[in-house]
Amino acid sequence: MDISSQIDSNKAALIEFLDLHKSKFLNEWLKSIIVNGIDVYNERIFVNGGLMYSLIEKAIVGSLSELELQQLAYKIAKERLEADINIGDFVYNVNLGRSILVKHVLQSELPLKNLQVIIEDINNHFDQFCFHAVSQYTNLKNQELEDQKLFISENHKDKLAILGQISSSFVHEFRNPLTAVIGFNKLLRNEYPDLKYIDIIEHELQQLNFRITQFLHTSKAEINLKQNEEFSIKSLFHELQPLIYPSIVDIDVNLTSKIDDDLIISSNKDEIKQVLLNLLINSIDALKEKDKPRNMIIESFCSQKGIFINISNNGPAIAAEFLKTIFEPFFTTKELGTGIGLFVCKKIIEKQGGYITCQSLEELTTFSIHLPNNLVCIKTGS
Hints:
Blueprint: H1 3-20, H2 22-32, H3 42-61, H4 66-83, H5 87-106, H6 112-191, H7 198-217, E1 229-232, H8 233-251, E2 253-259, E3 263-267, H9 269-287, E4 294-303, E5 306-313, H10 320-323, H11 341-351, E6 355-360, E7 365-371, H12 373-376, E8 377-379
Parallel strand pairs: 2-4
Antiparallel strand pairs: 1-3, 3-8, 4-5, 5-7, 6-7
Helix pairs in contact: 2-5, 3-4, 4-6, 5-6, 6-7, 8-9, 9-11
């Protein structure tokens, strides 16, 4: 008998042996594998094991195509995903089946030198099966996560749109009488400049108007028709001083300002003003939670990368897990916060093509605004 005929004869004898011991193999494997009690496909595990056993028999005689192996791998990967079972358990079970099968092959009493090539072929097919199954499982899992993210994002956008419509309608109704009150307060200030508490009334009205503007910014339907204008960053902070001065004095804040005198930007002044005011108020609120000294640092400069505005305070550090979500709408760590202030800031800055970040350490928390050089950075001295 030539070598080829001998190999075929050995393979035929091995298949006969495997057919005879199939039930023994499957029962031994089933007793040893990891099975989750909540697996909705528990009844298919034994069936899938039998299918894999049959494919390995086909591989031994050389009649197995890679497509057949791949199809079974894809089928089981889908079942593992739907069962929400750890893929590591699946890989363990497959390799356990490989070990038991190789042990049974070695018990066939065929010449070891003839079995070596067959065992290598079995291992190769198990490796291919694991590769296809884990790859498909990973692809399906990633797609599932992307679908979930998309659903959450779309659901979130729908809620924001509804909130925007409600808040926009409410705020417009509320702003009409507020505008009248602000107007009459200015008339009182002009006629009675020394009237007691007039400054406090104006400050509180401006704060209320600022909060209303924040709610307006949550509406996607909001249209801002105001044109960009050139203004000095330093002068803008000067305009904000009367709004924050009472709070700074009240809690004794040491304010340090480092702003280029000749720094001019072209942007929507009211929106940038709103962003800066919100960050200043947040810094003051944080400093209220700290013992003296209470320090706040404002700095702004222009470089080749654009314009940077930093507002820092030495208040309590923001927890690391919160840094990822503080710019999300309705997230707040304040007891009476709305959770829209930083979201609005982010929205305004991104509309200008920039970005806003936060870095918080024990000694200093810094909110940084970056605006692109090609859009807004102009120096009067250049």
